Amino acid sequence: MKLVRFTQAGKTRIGKLVAGQVVDLSAVTGASDSMRAVLAQWNALRARLEAVTAPGFALDQVRLEAPINDPQKYLAIGLNYKEHAEEARAAGVPIPTSQLWFNKQVSCISGPFDAIEFPPECKVLDYEIELGVVIGQRCRRVRAADARSVIAGYLVTNDVTARDWQTRSPTFTLGKSFDTHGPLGPWLTTDDEIADPMQLDMTLTVNGEVRQKMPTADMIHDIWAQIEYLSTVMTLEPGDVIATGTPSGVGVAINRTLQVGDVVRAEIEQLGAIENRVIAG
Length: 281
Description:
Elements: E1 2-8, E2 11-18, E3 21-24, H1 26-29, H2 35-40, H3 42-51, E4 56-58, E5 63-65, E6 74-78, H4 82-90, E7 100-103, E8 109-110, E9 116-118, E10 125-126, E11 129-135, E12 151-158, E13 161-162, H5 163-166, H6 173-176, E14 182-190, E15 201-206, E16 209-215, H7 223-233, E17 241-243, H8 251-254, E18 263-268, E19 272-280
Parallel strand pairs: 6-17, 8-14, 9-19
Antiparallel strand pairs: 1-2, 1-5, 1-14, 2-3, 3-4, 6-7, 10-13, 11-12, 11-17, 12-14, 15-16, 15-18, 18-19
């Protein structure tokens, strides 16, 4: 399924995308618009959600919201693509010998077509397309071989980064967490629809110009290794979002960072695309 959060007639609900229409699932999910709550009951709800066929709305009749807006955690890995690590090395950035993790505060999350604010306090704003993984069940100490069994699905993320704030402290969190700097979407594609998430092409454009283009196969630490590593430390919960790294071509590496008025489109094969205009914050 392709699960969405959508707003229609002033009300935000859970739905699914079927043949270009958004089917309202609130007869099953109730009045809540929490995707996290749906995932927490996934085994009990799935068959009923699959059976719903109406009511439906055309995509242009609804506003798509962030598929999940209330995760307990939004975790992201740095320097996890081979070519991106090399461009960082060339710029004098030390390459970590183990997985490098930071968190984006969940208040940064925004919708797949919402504007990205260029804060007045920021001087260098950048883009980073990433495959987002959403956890589907509470888990701890998951072996890499079993990691796929705890995944609910996948979505497109743009790890928007205030580069000058990123370098102000030993951790990346402040530079990664400005409001609106976490667009997600356009929907949550459940794991069963993706044959191999490590073989998906990713493309990011700015004003139609390709800036990043790379398959997920270029990851240094694959999705399964990431889940094993994280779950060694912490319990992962349904709805937690993991951003799995960005490929080469980030703006700071090519001296072409974002400006007000730019339109950033991030697309991942089989998962759809998000598109966000940069506005003055």
